[in-house]
C-alpha cells in the first residue's frame, strides 16, 4: 500500500513556543511571516483527510496569537469607545480579504446594535465593486485611501483602523500616513511584526500567526485572526457605548421575523408579559430597549 505523503506531522507538534521562536527567526533574517514557506510539503498529494487535519492544526494557532495581542486590542477599544461617545466615527480601511473583513464588520453594526448607518464604515481598495470581484492594482495606489476617507469628511473626531495581513499594502500605508499628518487617530491589524502600517499607527495590533498552510495565502490564518480581532473590537466597543444590556442585543434592528421573535422573547423575559402582548409592545416601541423602558414607565 502506498504510504501517505507528509500529512502534517510537523504541524501536530507546533505550539505557541515554536511560534515565538519562528517570529524571532523571521525578525533576525528580515522575513515577513505572511510570505514565509508553508510548514507542509506536497499538498497536492495529500488525502482530503490529511488536508483538513493539517489546516485545522494550523487554525488552532490563531487564538493563541490573538490572545497575545489582547493588551494592544484593549487600548484600541478604549480609544474608539471614547471617540464614538464624543461624536466621532470608526473607519476600517483595507484591500482584498482584509478590506472585505472590515466591510463585513462595519455593515453588521447597525442591524446588530441599532447604531446609525455611517457610525462604523468599511472602505476597500477599488470601491464597493471590489467586495465581490478583485480590482487589479487597486491596493497599489498610495493616494486613493486618503481620497476615500476624504469622501466621508474624515475629521480629528474619527478613528481609522488599517487592516492588512502583510502590513505593507500601499493603499493603507498612504491613508494612515495622511491621517497622522492631519492628527487623526490611527490603529491597525497586521500579521507581521515591525511593518510600515504599524509604524503609521498610534495603536498597532500585531497578530503573528506564522506561515500559511498554502504559502502566502493570507485569507487563511491571517484572515481568521483579523476577523477575530474585529469581532473583539466592535463587540467590546458597542458594549462600552451602551448598546448591550446584560448579555442581550436590546438595540438590534427588527429587520426580519426571526429578530422580531427573538426580541419578543427578550421583552417577555424582562417584563413577564405573555408573547402576544410582548410582541405588540415591541413593535410599537421599535426596539427591545425602548419596549422595556416603556413597560417600566407605564401601566402595562
Tell me about this structure.
This protein is an alpha/beta fold and 300 residues long. It is 50% helix and 9% strand. A five-stranded parallel β-sheet has the order 2-1-3-4-5, with helices on both faces. The termini are far apart.
Mean pLDDT across all amino acids: 90
Strand content: 5-15%
The CATH architecture classification of the largest domain is 3-Layer(aba) Sandwich
CATH topology of the largest domain: Rossmann fold
Query: What is the radius of gyration?
Result: 22 Å
Specify the structural class: alpha/beta
Domains (count): 2
Q: Count every beta strand, where a strand is a DSSP E run of 2 or more residues.
A: 5
User: CATH homologous superfamily of the largest domain, by name?
Assistant: Glucose-6-phosphate isomerase like protein, domain 1
The number of distinct helices, counting runs of at least 4 residues, comes to 13
Enumerate the spans where pLDDT stays under 50 for 5 or more consecutive residues: 1-5, 7-14, 23-30
Strand and helix order? HHHHHEHEHEHEHEHHHH
Q: Which word captures the global form?
A: globular
Assign a percent range to the helix content.
40-55%
Which strands sit side by side, in order, in the main sheet?
2-1-3-4-5
Short description:
This protein is an alpha/beta fold and 300 residues long. It has helices at residues 9-12, 16-28, 48-59, 61-68, 70-85, 96-113, 144-150, 170-181, 196-199, 221-240, 257-271, 275-285, 288-296; strands spanning 90-94, 120-124, 159-164, 185-190, 203-206.
Short descriptors:
300 residues, alpha/beta, Rossmann fold, 9% strand, 5 strands, five-stranded parallel beta sheet, disordered N terminus
Amino acid at each position: 500500500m502506498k504510504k501517505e505523503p507528509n500529512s502534517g506531522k510537523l504541524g501536530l507538534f507546533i505550539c505557541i513556543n515554536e511560534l515565538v521562536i519562528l517570529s524571532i527567526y523571521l525578525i533576525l533574517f528580515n522575513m515577513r511571516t505572511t510570505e514565509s514557506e508553508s510548514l507542509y510539503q506536497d499538498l497536492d498529494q495529500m488525502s482530503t483527510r490529511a488536508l483538513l487535519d493539517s489546516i485545522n492544526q494550523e487554525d488552532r494557532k490563531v487564538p493563541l496569537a490573538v490572545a497575545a495581542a489582547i493588551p494592544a486590542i484593549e487600548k484600541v477599544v478604549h480609544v474608539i469607545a471614547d471617540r464614538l461617545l464624543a461624536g466621532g466615527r470608526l473607519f476600517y480601511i483595507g484591500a482584498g480579504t482584509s478590506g472585505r473583513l472590515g466591510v463585513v464588520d462595519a455593515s453588521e453594526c447597525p442591524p446588530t446594535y441599532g447604531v446609525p448607518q455611517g457610525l462604523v464604515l468599511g472602505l476597500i481598495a477599488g470601491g464597493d465593486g471590489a467586495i465581490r470581484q478583485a480590482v487589479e492594482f487597486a491596493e497599489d495606489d498610495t493616494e486613493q485611501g486618503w481620497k476615500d476617507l476624504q469622501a466621508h469628511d474624515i475629521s480629528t473626531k474619527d478613528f481609522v483602523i488599517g487592516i492588512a495581513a502583510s502590513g505593507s499594502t500601499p493603499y493603507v500605508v498612504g491613508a494612515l500616513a495622511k491621517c497622522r499628518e492631519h492628527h487623526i487617530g490611527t490603529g491597525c491589524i497586521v500579521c507581521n511584526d515591525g511593518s510600515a502600517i504599524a509604524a503609521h499607527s498610534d495603536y498597532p495590533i500585531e497578530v503573528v500567526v506564522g506561515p500559511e498552510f498554502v504559502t502566502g495565502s493570507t485569507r487563511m490564518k491571517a484572515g481568521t485572526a483579523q476577523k477575530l480581532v474585529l469581532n473583539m473590537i466592535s463587540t467590546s466597543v458597542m458594549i462600552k457605548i451602551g448598546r448591550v444590556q446584560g448579555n442581550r442585543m436590546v438595540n438590534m434592528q427588527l429587520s426580519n421575523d426571526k429578530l422580531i421573535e427573538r426580541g419578543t422573547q427578550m421583552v417577555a423575559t424582562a417584563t413577564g408579559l405573555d408573547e402576544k402582548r410582548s410582541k405588540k409592545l415591541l413593535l410599537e416601541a421599535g426596539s427591545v430597549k425602548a419596549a422595556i423602558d416603556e413597560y417600566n414607565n407605564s401601566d402595562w
